[in-house]
Amino acid sequence: MNKRALVLLLLAGITAGQTKPAHRPTRKAETPHITFVKEYVRELIEDENLKVTGEKGLSEAKTLNEQLSTGIYVSKSIQLELRSQIAILNGMRLNDQFDTLIPDLTGFYQHRIELHQELIDINRKFMAGPKEGMHYQALAAKVPEIRAELDAAGKAVFEATPLIFMTLIDQKPDSQGHFSHLLITKDEKADLEDQLAIMLKDVPDKGDQDYYISAAMVLRGGLQKGHKCADEPWD
Hints:
- Helix 2 packs antiparallel against helix 8 (211-223), helix 4 (101-127) packs antiparallel against helix 5 (136-159) and helix 5 (136-159) runs parallel beside helix 8.
- The protein has eight helices and no strands.
- The chain has helices at 3-19, 33-60, 64-90, 101-127, 136-159, 161-166, 186-200, 211-223.
- The chain is mainly alpha-helical and 235 residues long.
- It is elongated, with a radius of gyration of 25 Å.
- The chain has one domain (33-169, 179-223).
């Protein structure tokens, strides 16, 4: 085969590749909103449990090395849980005004994973012992900055909670023009309230709480506002 024929064949192949019909990815069906909200509550419960367990472990650590080792364990456990949460949420999709809610949440979760990796790396460097050229004071000074960023990420998730509750509200107005109904049935509402009750057991209604508990309280308050359920009569 001469050179001219080879070039013509290559051009024909390129052209054929360009004219093939594109295969558009199938769009995922919208996730039932109750499924999404129940997953969010499950995540709050898991995050709160990890926080309590981590604080207990750090308080019981006797030596510096034990504290560093426990810190690595806690951050790694949180990372694993966050990756699991991201994987679950990535399998969900919401429509219309809520379409950015899940990507926003997973973005906050990914940022927390990265921040915990910074803590793990710092703890490992301290555990490895003194090394020439290592600026340990600078590393130690970085820790409160990372914790402040973690706090900001937790606050951002908490601030998304009212919007998460709004996914349960039926956007069809009643005869008075009010959004008076939820998208969930009485049984689904009771199940969600039971899930929240597990997390909020023995938690006082007043006083400062962490972001996970506060988010659960926002959801509980929304459910108590008097919206009718999907299987109750419309006015």
